[in-house]
Design goal:
With 72 residues, the protein is an all-alpha fold. It has 3 helices and no strands.
Length: 72
């Protein structure tokens, strides 16, 4: 996992630069996950995390597409 952990900060910065609402979206979903954990609602936490990961994947794809366009 160490190589992945080393890549995360730069990946996040690249996504934030390429996708306007990525940072705000991450904050919203992290709050939803946190609130579900505080409420001791594992199903809500799981669903919020699942949705957050789907959105994060979409943002990563947008970032990669933006990088490809720049390199053309």
């Amino acid at each position: 996992l160490a190589p992945i952990h080393k890549m995360v900060p730069q990946s996040k910065l690249s996504i934030y630069a390429a996708v306007d609402d990525a940072k705000g979206s991450a904050l919203i979903w992290h709050q939803k996950i946190f609130d579900a954990v505080l409420s001791r609602d594992p199903e809500a936490a799981r669903l919020a995390m699942q949705e957050h990961l789907l959105i994060a994947e979409q943002h990563a794809e947008k970032m990669l597409e933006a990088q490809e366009r720049k390199s053309e």
